[in-house]
Amino acid sequence: MRITLVRGPAPDGSTWKQTYDLPDMVGASVSNVLQYISRHIDGTVAYYLSCRRGLCAACVVRIDGQNEKACVVEAYDGMVVEPTNLRLLIKDSVVHLGMPPESEFDLSEAACRSTST
Questions:
Q1: 10 Å Cβ neighbour count for 111?
Q2: What is the DSSP string of the chain?
Q3: pTM for this structure?
Q4: I need a labelling partner for 74 at 20 to 30 A (CA). Which of 2, 21, 58, 96 fits?
């Protein structure tokens, strides 16, 4: 099984693709595959591993262009796993899950007036 991860950020903020050759892992979830890569191939891979039952959605990643819960989607040969939002990227598939910092909001007086009228 071959899996490609979009990794990053590099010091300049860019991302890169890294492909891993894995043993056949029939029935394994994407979370299981990320855990295998981290434990047996590349300990620098970052990922969320929380409820493992599809309840919390902390593990959401983009798989072949679609946002999916990594803990309930079955991994398959050739898949590409990437972060859901590059703007919120912390490392590899891990993105910031909290509220954006105040700098992300438009707190200008003009914006406040236009929404209150």
A1: 11
A2: -EEEEEE---TTS--EEEEEE----TT-BHHHHHHHIIIII-TT-------SSSSS-TTEEEETTEEEETTTSBP-TT-EEE-S-GGGEEETTEE--SPPPGGGS---HHHHHHHH-
A3: 0.78
A4: 96
To the nearest 10°, report the CA torsion of 36, 39, 43, 49.
70
Kind of pairing between the strands at 66-69 and 80-82: unpaired
Q: Are 15 and 7 in contact (CB under 8 A)?
A: yes
pLDDT in tens, 9-64: 999 989 999 999 999 999 999 999 999 999 999 999 999 888 888 788 889 999 99
